[in-house]
Hints:
single chain; two-stranded antiparallel sheet; two-stranded parallel sheet; 4 strands; 61% helix; 3% strand
Amino acid sequence: MTVLPTILASLFLGFALASIGFNVMHDANHGSYSSRKWVNKTLGLTLNALGGNSFIWKQKHNIIHHTYTNIEGIDDDIAKSPFIRMCGSQRWLPAHRLQHLYTPLLYAFSSIIWVLFQDYEKYFRRKIVNTPLAKMSAADHTIFWISKVLYLVFYIVVPIVLMGWQSWLVYFFSMHIGQGLTLSIIFQLAHVVEETEFDSVSVEAKLIENEWAIHQVKTTANFSRNNRIISWLVGGLNYQIEHHLFPRISHIHYPALSRLVQKECAAFNVPYNNMPTFRSAVVSHFRFIRLLGKKPA
Ligand SMILES: [Zn+2]
Protein backbone atom coordinates (compact mmCIF):
# COMPACT_ATOMS: atom_id res chain seq x y z
CA MET A 1 0.00 0.00 0.00
CA THR A 2 1.36 3.38 -0.89
CA VAL A 3 1.70 5.99 1.79
CA LEU A 4 -0.54 8.79 0.54
CA PRO A 5 -3.85 6.88 0.29
CA THR A 6 -3.21 5.41 3.75
CA ILE A 7 -2.50 8.86 5.19
CA LEU A 8 -5.78 10.09 3.66
CA ALA A 9 -7.60 7.02 5.03
CA SER A 10 -6.09 7.69 8.47
CA LEU A 11 -7.19 11.34 8.36
CA PHE A 12 -10.67 10.15 7.42
CA LEU A 13 -10.61 7.59 10.22
CA GLY A 14 -9.89 10.44 12.66
CA PHE A 15 -12.81 12.38 11.21
CA ALA A 16 -15.09 9.31 11.54
CA LEU A 17 -13.99 8.77 15.16
CA ALA A 18 -14.81 12.41 15.94
CA SER A 19 -18.22 11.91 14.34
CA ILE A 20 -18.85 8.90 16.61
CA GLY A 21 -17.96 11.26 19.44
CA PHE A 22 -20.51 13.85 18.28
CA ASN A 23 -23.35 11.47 17.41
CA VAL A 24 -23.08 8.67 19.96
CA MET A 25 -20.72 9.52 22.81
CA HIS A 26 -21.92 13.09 23.36
CA ASP A 27 -25.62 12.18 23.50
CA ALA A 28 -24.99 9.04 25.57
CA ASN A 29 -22.89 10.87 28.18
CA HIS A 30 -25.61 13.53 28.45
CA GLY A 31 -28.18 10.75 28.99
CA SER A 32 -30.05 11.73 25.82
CA TYR A 33 -29.20 8.81 23.52
CA SER A 34 -31.74 6.46 25.07
CA SER A 35 -34.38 6.44 27.80
CA ARG A 36 -32.54 3.44 29.28
CA LYS A 37 -29.78 4.41 31.70
CA TRP A 38 -27.65 1.35 30.96
CA VAL A 39 -27.70 2.07 27.21
CA ASN A 40 -26.42 5.63 27.83
CA LYS A 41 -23.81 4.36 30.27
CA THR A 42 -22.56 1.70 27.86
CA LEU A 43 -22.50 3.93 24.77
CA GLY A 44 -20.89 6.72 26.85
CA LEU A 45 -17.91 4.37 27.06
CA THR A 46 -17.38 4.79 23.29
CA LEU A 47 -15.36 7.78 24.48
CA ASN A 48 -13.00 5.39 26.29
CA ALA A 49 -12.70 3.43 23.05
CA LEU A 50 -11.64 6.68 21.35
CA GLY A 51 -8.95 7.16 24.01
CA GLY A 52 -10.75 9.51 26.41
CA ASN A 53 -12.54 8.83 29.68
CA SER A 54 -16.28 9.02 30.20
CA PHE A 55 -16.10 9.81 33.96
CA ILE A 56 -13.78 12.80 33.50
CA TRP A 57 -15.65 14.01 30.39
CA LYS A 58 -19.03 14.03 32.16
CA GLN A 59 -17.67 16.43 34.75
CA LYS A 60 -15.60 18.52 32.39
CA HIS A 61 -18.41 18.82 29.86
CA ASN A 62 -21.85 18.15 31.44
CA ILE A 63 -21.24 20.00 34.68
CA ILE A 64 -18.43 22.49 34.19
CA HIS A 65 -18.75 23.49 30.53
CA HIS A 66 -22.56 23.34 30.42
CA THR A 67 -22.98 25.42 33.59
CA TYR A 68 -20.03 27.83 33.42
CA THR A 69 -20.00 28.25 29.64
CA ASN A 70 -17.32 30.71 28.46
CA ILE A 71 -16.36 31.62 32.02
CA GLU A 72 -12.65 32.20 32.32
CA GLY A 73 -10.93 30.12 35.01
CA ILE A 74 -13.72 27.52 35.16
CA ASP A 75 -14.73 26.39 31.63
CA ASP A 76 -12.06 23.92 30.44
CA ASP A 77 -13.03 24.44 26.79
CA ILE A 78 -11.55 27.97 26.77
CA ALA A 79 -8.66 27.13 29.12
CA LYS A 80 -5.93 27.03 26.44
CA SER A 81 -3.88 29.83 28.01
CA PRO A 82 -0.96 30.61 27.66
CA PHE A 83 -0.95 28.94 24.21
CA ILE A 84 -4.22 30.37 22.87
CA ARG A 85 -5.90 33.50 24.26
CA MET A 86 -9.60 32.68 23.89
CA CYS A 87 -11.21 35.56 25.78
CA GLY A 88 -10.40 39.14 26.70
CA SER A 89 -9.80 38.46 30.40
CA GLN A 90 -6.94 36.02 29.68
CA ARG A 91 -3.36 37.26 29.89
CA TRP A 92 -1.94 38.55 26.61
CA LEU A 93 1.53 37.51 25.44
CA PRO A 94 3.41 38.84 22.38
CA ALA A 95 3.27 35.36 20.74
CA HIS A 96 -0.54 35.67 20.60
CA ARG A 97 -0.07 38.12 17.70
CA LEU A 98 0.43 35.01 15.57
CA GLN A 99 -2.18 32.83 17.25
CA HIS A 100 -4.60 32.88 14.32
CA LEU A 101 -1.81 31.25 12.31
CA TYR A 102 -0.65 28.59 14.76
CA THR A 103 -4.03 27.74 16.37
CA PRO A 104 -4.96 25.22 13.60
CA LEU A 105 -1.69 23.41 14.30
CA LEU A 106 -2.54 23.17 18.01
CA TYR A 107 -6.03 21.97 17.11
CA ALA A 108 -4.46 19.24 14.95
CA PHE A 109 -2.56 17.94 17.98
CA SER A 110 -5.38 18.48 20.49
CA SER A 111 -6.77 14.94 20.57
CA ILE A 112 -3.36 13.31 20.93
CA ILE A 113 -2.58 15.69 23.82
CA TRP A 114 -6.00 14.96 25.35
CA VAL A 115 -5.61 11.18 25.16
CA LEU A 116 -1.96 10.88 26.11
CA PHE A 117 -1.60 13.80 28.54
CA GLN A 118 -4.63 15.84 29.64
CA ASP A 119 -6.72 12.94 31.00
CA TYR A 120 -3.77 11.84 33.16
CA GLU A 121 -3.16 15.43 34.28
CA LYS A 122 -6.80 15.73 35.43
CA TYR A 123 -6.70 12.25 37.01
CA PHE A 124 -3.56 12.85 39.07
CA ARG A 125 -4.11 16.56 39.87
CA ARG A 126 -7.73 15.69 40.79
CA LYS A 127 -8.85 18.97 39.24
CA ILE A 128 -10.42 20.27 36.04
CA VAL A 129 -8.93 23.77 35.67
CA ASN A 130 -9.84 25.03 39.20
CA THR A 131 -12.75 22.69 39.99
CA PRO A 132 -11.95 19.60 42.10
CA LEU A 133 -12.67 16.28 40.38
CA ALA A 134 -15.54 14.37 42.02
CA LYS A 135 -14.67 11.28 44.01
CA MET A 136 -14.02 8.29 41.77
CA SER A 137 -15.31 4.90 42.86
CA ALA A 138 -13.17 1.76 42.63
CA ALA A 139 -15.07 0.91 39.42
CA ASP A 140 -14.29 4.36 37.93
CA HIS A 141 -10.57 3.92 38.65
CA THR A 142 -10.63 0.41 37.17
CA ILE A 143 -12.44 1.55 34.02
CA PHE A 144 -10.00 4.46 33.67
CA TRP A 145 -6.92 2.22 33.78
CA ILE A 146 -8.32 -0.72 31.79
CA SER A 147 -9.47 1.52 28.94
CA LYS A 148 -6.20 3.48 28.90
CA VAL A 149 -4.22 0.22 28.74
CA LEU A 150 -6.52 -1.15 26.00
CA TYR A 151 -5.98 2.09 24.05
CA LEU A 152 -2.21 1.64 24.26
CA VAL A 153 -2.55 -2.00 23.15
CA PHE A 154 -4.95 -1.50 20.21
CA TYR A 155 -3.84 1.90 18.89
CA ILE A 156 -0.11 1.64 19.61
CA VAL A 157 1.30 -1.83 20.40
CA VAL A 158 -0.69 -3.96 17.89
CA PRO A 159 -0.16 -1.58 14.91
CA ILE A 160 3.57 -1.28 15.70
CA VAL A 161 3.88 -5.09 15.77
CA LEU A 162 1.95 -5.43 12.50
CA MET A 163 3.41 -2.56 10.44
CA GLY A 164 6.54 -1.32 12.23
CA TRP A 165 6.90 1.86 14.25
CA GLN A 166 7.69 4.22 11.34
CA SER A 167 4.43 3.45 9.50
CA TRP A 168 2.49 3.44 12.77
CA LEU A 169 3.85 6.88 13.67
CA VAL A 170 2.74 8.39 10.35
CA TYR A 171 -0.74 6.84 10.41
CA PHE A 172 -1.34 7.37 14.14
CA PHE A 173 -0.48 11.06 13.82
CA SER A 174 -2.57 11.36 10.64
CA MET A 175 -5.57 9.82 12.43
CA HIS A 176 -5.17 12.22 15.36
CA ILE A 177 -4.78 15.21 13.07
CA GLY A 178 -8.15 14.32 11.49
CA GLN A 179 -9.72 13.72 14.89
CA GLY A 180 -8.22 16.74 16.66
CA LEU A 181 -9.03 19.23 13.91
CA THR A 182 -12.63 18.01 13.63
CA LEU A 183 -13.31 17.95 17.39
CA SER A 184 -11.67 21.32 18.10
CA ILE A 185 -13.21 23.22 15.22
CA ILE A 186 -16.76 21.94 15.78
CA PHE A 187 -16.68 22.60 19.53
CA GLN A 188 -14.99 26.01 19.20
CA LEU A 189 -17.42 27.27 16.54
CA ALA A 190 -20.21 26.91 19.08
CA HIS A 191 -18.76 29.30 21.67
CA VAL A 192 -15.62 31.12 20.54
CA VAL A 193 -16.82 33.39 17.76
CA GLU A 194 -17.33 37.15 17.39
CA GLU A 195 -21.02 36.91 18.30
CA THR A 196 -20.78 35.14 21.67
CA GLU A 197 -20.17 36.64 25.11
CA PHE A 198 -17.61 35.75 27.75
CA ASP A 199 -17.61 36.27 31.47
CA SER A 200 -15.29 35.99 34.42
CA VAL A 201 -16.58 35.38 37.92
CA SER A 202 -14.90 34.75 41.24
CA VAL A 203 -13.69 31.14 41.05
CA GLU A 204 -14.66 30.63 44.71
CA ALA A 205 -18.17 32.10 44.57
CA LYS A 206 -18.96 30.88 41.01
CA LEU A 207 -21.89 33.32 40.75
CA ILE A 208 -22.97 34.03 37.19
CA GLU A 209 -24.42 37.47 36.56
CA ASN A 210 -27.17 36.43 34.13
CA GLU A 211 -30.06 34.07 34.64
CA TRP A 212 -29.03 30.52 33.60
CA ALA A 213 -30.88 30.24 30.26
CA ILE A 214 -29.92 33.75 29.17
CA HIS A 215 -26.27 33.02 29.98
CA GLN A 216 -26.43 29.83 27.89
CA VAL A 217 -27.94 31.61 24.90
CA LYS A 218 -25.58 34.60 25.01
CA THR A 219 -22.44 32.47 25.23
CA THR A 220 -23.43 30.05 22.48
CA ALA A 221 -23.88 30.12 18.70
CA ASN A 222 -25.50 27.93 16.05
CA PHE A 223 -24.19 27.43 12.53
CA SER A 224 -25.41 26.07 9.19
CA ARG A 225 -28.78 25.02 10.59
CA ASN A 226 -30.18 24.30 7.16
CA ASN A 227 -27.38 21.98 6.09
CA ARG A 228 -28.64 18.45 6.74
CA ILE A 229 -25.31 16.79 5.93
CA ILE A 230 -23.41 18.94 8.45
CA SER A 231 -26.17 18.42 11.05
CA TRP A 232 -25.83 14.66 10.55
CA LEU A 233 -22.02 14.60 10.63
CA VAL A 234 -21.71 16.76 13.76
CA GLY A 235 -24.54 15.08 15.69
CA GLY A 236 -26.62 18.26 15.91
CA LEU A 237 -23.81 20.23 17.53
CA ASN A 238 -24.48 22.99 15.02
CA TYR A 239 -27.68 23.55 17.08
CA GLN A 240 -25.58 24.34 20.11
CA ILE A 241 -28.06 26.87 21.61
CA GLU A 242 -30.75 24.19 21.77
CA HIS A 243 -28.21 21.69 23.06
CA HIS A 244 -27.22 24.02 25.92
CA LEU A 245 -30.83 24.69 26.82
CA PHE A 246 -31.96 21.06 26.48
CA PRO A 247 -28.89 18.82 26.88
CA ARG A 248 -30.98 15.82 27.90
CA ILE A 249 -33.07 15.88 24.72
CA SER A 250 -31.77 13.85 21.75
CA HIS A 251 -30.12 16.01 19.09
CA ILE A 252 -32.50 14.74 16.39
CA HIS A 253 -35.16 17.08 17.84
CA TYR A 254 -33.00 20.25 17.72
CA PRO A 255 -34.08 21.49 14.25
CA ALA A 256 -37.74 21.61 15.35
CA LEU A 257 -36.83 23.04 18.77
CA SER A 258 -34.67 25.75 17.24
CA ARG A 259 -37.63 27.43 15.55
CA LEU A 260 -39.38 27.76 18.92
CA VAL A 261 -36.24 28.92 20.74
CA GLN A 262 -35.48 31.57 18.11
CA LYS A 263 -39.05 32.89 18.40
CA GLU A 264 -38.83 33.07 22.21
CA CYS A 265 -35.45 34.81 22.06
CA ALA A 266 -36.93 37.45 19.76
CA ALA A 267 -39.93 37.88 22.11
CA PHE A 268 -37.64 38.41 25.14
CA ASN A 269 -35.09 40.48 23.23
CA VAL A 270 -32.26 38.00 23.79
CA PRO A 271 -29.75 37.73 20.91
CA TYR A 272 -29.96 34.41 19.02
CA ASN A 273 -26.48 33.87 17.59
CA ASN A 274 -26.88 32.08 14.31
CA MET A 275 -24.28 31.86 11.57
CA PRO A 276 -25.80 30.81 8.25
CA THR A 277 -22.99 28.58 6.99
CA PHE A 278 -20.09 26.46 8.26
CA ARG A 279 -17.72 28.74 6.36
CA SER A 280 -19.07 31.91 8.03
CA ALA A 281 -18.63 30.27 11.44
CA VAL A 282 -15.02 29.25 10.69
CA VAL A 283 -14.23 32.77 9.44
CA SER A 284 -15.82 34.30 12.56
CA HIS A 285 -13.84 31.98 14.86
CA PHE A 286 -10.47 32.76 13.32
CA ARG A 287 -11.25 36.49 13.03
CA PHE A 288 -12.04 36.47 16.76
CA ILE A 289 -8.85 34.53 17.58
CA ARG A 290 -6.89 37.07 15.53
CA LEU A 291 -8.55 39.98 17.36
CA LEU A 292 -7.67 38.48 20.74
CA GLY A 293 -4.07 38.12 19.57
CA LYS A 294 -3.72 41.88 19.26
CA LYS A 295 -2.15 43.70 22.20
CA PRO A 296 -4.96 44.97 24.48
CA ALA A 297 -5.18 48.78 24.55
ZN1 LIG B 1 -22.86 18.91 25.53
